[in-house]
Amino acid sequence: MKNYLMILAGLILAVGANAQSKISNHIAEVNLPKSSKNVTMTDFETYGKRKFKRDLKPFDNGKTFIVDDAMFVSIGELQKSAATKKSLEKWKRQLEALYKEMGQPWDQSEIDTINGTRFYIFEEHRDEEFKSLFYSEDVDDKSVSGFIVYKLKDRDKAHTYLSDLLKNIKLKKQ
Amino acid sequence: MREGTVLSSDNNIKTVKQFVTWNEHDGFTIGLIHSHPAGTQPSAADVFTLLDPLKIPNLVNGGATAINYYKTNFSVTVVVYDATYVLKIRDITKLQALQREYALNNRAFNEKVSSAIAIKGDYDAGFLSVFENAVILYKAGAKDNLFKAAKFDNNGNLILIQPCL
Domain for residue B47, yes or no? Predict the structure, then answer.
């Protein structure tokens, strides 16, 4: 317990020193909500395993954040190949079919346009642990994608965070 | 014995029983086929049917030649609404290790697969990222019937390789 508290305190200090308000990749600029603290992918997974039972493997080529010690956020860039390129509608159908096959219900599965950008948003939960995923429309065979993992008690806060985040993703469209 | 759903010629979805046999009288089964009328791609459970023949004493006791024949030729075919998938064994030891992990906690294993699919933003890519060392995955579109092997390129992107014609 003592070790755990020491790791937690160290991590909080570490992330406090790494606050980041903006990230930019090949296709988007993302202004992050103020409370987002940048952490390494290793810390993200290590600390996440202590806090959640579920898998927290982050998106490739991206950044990881912890918000208020309650929400674990991964934002990445998906590169599409001819084999993986598809519409958001098809991806929605595939993901829903997967969860149906597993007998796992979902809480939200919607395509929405936010500030001119189309996103597919999917939320599911296992016991009291929730995961919200989002996928932007493609730009040059790439899309901005991410997830937030949180507990039931933080669900409202997570929805607000996600809403703020999606409003602040600006795709570099031609 | 396996049960699978098929779309019959009268357009009804029916359940059929498929028996895996390995003897001269009933035949040597080298493939199972079923459809997913609901439109889902192959599941983890489908992958592990590749190991079903190892439950047959005739095969297991048939020696190295019989086992090698099975490992080389046995396939599981899954027909979905827009594609047909064929799964074959790449490395039986790795496949058996994954099956043990699945048997231990299939909920956790399914979560691992669904998480991989979500992270890749693609069913085939996520599925293959979990199973690529254990199985070979071929895919054909519903309209072309040309099976291509799925693999990752050096940048980690899923590509479909057309076999030599």
Answer: yes
Question: Chain A residue with minimal CA distance to B106?
Answer: A102
Q: What is the pLDDT of residues A14-24, one digit of tens each?
A: 444 445 577 77
Number of structural domains found in chain B: 1
A123: domain CATH number? 3.40.1000.10
Question: A84 vs B158: CB contact, 8 Å cut-off?
Answer: yes
Query: What ipTM was predicted for this assembly?
Result: 0.83
Output the pTM of the full model: 0.84
- Domain for residue B163, yes or no? no
**Domain that residue B151 falls in:** 2-157
Domain count for chain A, please give it: 1
Closest CA to B20 of B2, B34, B6: B2
The residue range of the domain holding A124 is 2-171
Helices (H), chain B: 44-48, 57-60, 63-73, 92-104, 106-120, 123-131
- Are residues A82 and B160, on separate chains, in Cβ contact within 8 Å? yes
B-contacting residues of A 9-28, CB under 8 Å? none
Rounded CA gap, A25 and A32, in Å? 13
Chain A residue closest in CA terms to B112: A55
Check CB contact under 8 Å for B156 and A60: yes
Q: Is the pLDDT of residue B14 over 70?
A: no
Q: How far apart are CA A107 and CA A120, in angstroms?
A: 13
